[in-house]
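Structure tokens please, single chain.
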Amino acid sequence: MNTEVQLEDIVSLAKRRGFIWQGSDVYGGLSGTWDYGPLGVALKRNIMQLWWRMFVDERDDIYGVDAAILM
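Here you go.
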């Protein structure tokens, strides 16, 4: 039995469960973009908050910056 999970399997599950769907799916889809459903928005937000806490809040030598362009 092959238990290796492929990216296509994860994307398929996420689409079936309403986490994501192809961007502008109503208009035939926009290549390479994804829209988030309610569960996808919550998951993305939780991941971003966890990342920020681990890599910014818990370190004394890092300062958070939110800018359009970093040069």
